[in-house]
Design a protein that fits this description.
The structure is a homodimer. The first copy, chain A, is α/β, with parallel strands linked by helices. In chain A, about 40% of the residues lie in helices and about 25% in strands. In chain A, the strands form 4 sheets. A 6-stranded mixed β-sheet of chain A has the order 2-1-3-8-7-6, sandwiched between helices. The interface between A and B is large, with 100 and 96 residues.
Chain lengths: ~450, ~450
Amino acid sequence: MSRYGKLRKEFMQKKNVNDTLSFGEVRGEVEIITIGDEILIGQIVDTNSAFIGQLLNMNGMSVKQISSVSDDRGHILAALDEAKKRADIILITGGLGPTKDDITKKTLCEYFKTSTRFDEEAYQDVVNIFATYGKEVTPINRLQAEVPAICEVIRNKNGTAPGMWFNVDGKIFISMPGVPYEMKAMMKEQVIPKLRSQFKFPVIVHKTVLTQGIGESTLSEMISGWEDSLGAHNIKLAYLPSPGMVRLRLSTKGSNEHELNAITDKKIEELKHIISEYIYGYEVYGEEKETLEMMVGQMLLKNKKTVSTAESCTGGYISHLITKVAGSSAYYIGSVISYAYEIKESELGVPHEVIMKHGAVSQPVVEQMAKAIRERYKTDYSISASGIAGPGGGTTDKPVGTVWIAIATPEKVISEKFLFGNNRERNIQKTANAALNMLRKELEHLA
Amino acid sequence: MSRYGKLRKEFMQKKNVNDTLSFGEVRGEVEIITIGDEILIGQIVDTNSAFIGQLLNMNGMSVKQISSVSDDRGHILAALDEAKKRADIILITGGLGPTKDDITKKTLCEYFKTSTRFDEEAYQDVVNIFATYGKEVTPINRLQAEVPAICEVIRNKNGTAPGMWFNVDGKIFISMPGVPYEMKAMMKEQVIPKLRSQFKFPVIVHKTVLTQGIGESTLSEMISGWEDSLGAHNIKLAYLPSPGMVRLRLSTKGSNEHELNAITDKKIEELKHIISEYIYGYEVYGEEKETLEMMVGQMLLKNKKTVSTAESCTGGYISHLITKVAGSSAYYIGSVISYAYEIKESELGVPHEVIMKHGAVSQPVVEQMAKAIRERYKTDYSISASGIAGPGGGTTDKPVGTVWIAIATPEKVISEKFLFGNNRERNIQKTANAALNMLRKELEHLA
């Protein structure tokens, strides 16, 4: 048995493969091949694969491998051959431009031992694109309408390169342009509906629990028993860390969406009892991704409350996160960035003696900063932060990464000390996330 | 001849392979394997591969393929096997976390038929990481120091997972964590120097010209004649756009570093005559990357000048960029983020009538903002910005993307109007970059 045959057998023997049953001739295993030197030399980041992976996944298909290869005939042929052995559906992007360095179409003809034909509809799309710019089709662009004889054309309303759909030996090959917005429209409007109409795929449910303020390994130890219990329900858990936060993704696959949702929700309920204080939100796959600043924004908006910030070590980053959200002017009023001691004194009323006695990174200073900005900017809530972002400025008492954060509310001022790491940029990010999470917790007390 | 043998022969026959000559046993052909379900389901975009590709390329190595596979034993084994057939150096990222879903290390042991050993140095790194957070190493993290017996450890100063270097059958396998900043530090500080010390790669010279304030296509038209002249000198040009800026990278490869530098410098001199007003700096590969905010910071520092900002549409982003730079407290004093009209009036002395008459996004408003913050925060220079970031708030007169920026200096206040696009996040970034560039131009008048 070939390695691939063996590999497939291994996959089949795995517990969850019973769910990826064969419907029609296709099992729903997909590979993506991206073609283009610019990816291999790192000139562009391949965002297409992530888009495709997400879309396929939401539609019950699993991507087994993504391969990026260069604009090289031999290399493309080898990649097609390998993908065909492993997958049922092969999605190819890139290399369809009109210039000489783009050889995907020619190579597909060679691979499928076919010649080209002129496609009237594809040509019409080229004509329309040129008409948008008030231009006639150039000879080199007329060639874009030459397609492999055995393919079905996937029309492209946004560019000159038609997509191509091949059905050979029970395998589907789909070639699309690499330009993200052309490919995206093709995937959403044509490729996915066509795949769904021809094959039946399993249901996949992903739900993500968002945590803040607990490290990956501590979290993993706390929930280890719960994690072990997931296997019995065929739920996979993934840890997705970013500065100061860990997202926990639960994934499961089957045929009954209702049941899959129910069991996943049940497990999330159990998790809540273990780590409730660290959970700041949830993401359901397919719905818009929620950030902490979006969540805080929605809570402020809903309760018609406003916020201001007084920042030192974060240097405006908290305000930036808040104002990145469209519509934030409804609840965000403004900030004082008091980087220098003098500004903390003159603008935020921190007494000179307090700074001298306790230092700028201290509880009395951040509490005064939060109190002062809230009053001065007449907001309901305020956030303040003062810390040693690094690399310089650390002492034995207050090493780099020491941060004080305060939140002023209509009733009180609360504050907390943190010890983050020694990377300046991450310390700034972690401080901002911790501050937003402290505010979120306070806002939860509202209706 | 096997398909891979054939493929290699084809590569060898290609023109540029004379440059990637074999030195020692290694030809410098590299493959990257990224491991992790989160890439395949599109939950994260794989930015690691682009970083690695770029770094290798600049050091004379060519990436032949990037493969992304899932956290699945059989699949990882198959990917290693395939990569080994094609490449001499295989870089692997991901799957090294302490949690149960990470199986790369275990699988590498299986692949190389080796067991694990406890590595004292790796353990010391784990201890140090935990010490930074004032914590003891947990049992699960102690396991991070268990490494495959036959590997050399690549130390990790930024995380708990050591990198691993394998030299088996004349092939190099390097396994690194998937966390970008851990992997990046490892690549730059250890993997690249070690590869360079063991093998000889061709000399590659990259120099980058940094431009601000001109779009990619206009730029391309302006320099088209110059661009055509590069081919004769075997210099490749790449356009690397980011919001409001385009970096032009000139790359050339050969054996004589001195000659390569000389011809590249000559071409850059020619370019200066064509687009001097848009060039704000240069980057030489291997030297630290200079951002506009770093450049401005150095100019302020050198001239012992200070700066403050008064921001509206950028919501703290300009301050964030300035304070991201270590040591910025020497020249950055603070900011007022006047998101609401009231703050522009109460804190920055913008007369109510002026806002009523001209609108918050107007020349008199930004000029007053810049003047006021400079005086109030007692700085030598100041930056102010007010604009419509979008998506809402646009009018026929002032569509989304309209931005006014002012700079106050000890002598004067200058201001400029911009019309950016309709993407909120990019408008914020473009505004910040344009503002920093305006300040840079003013600072150039200093000695």
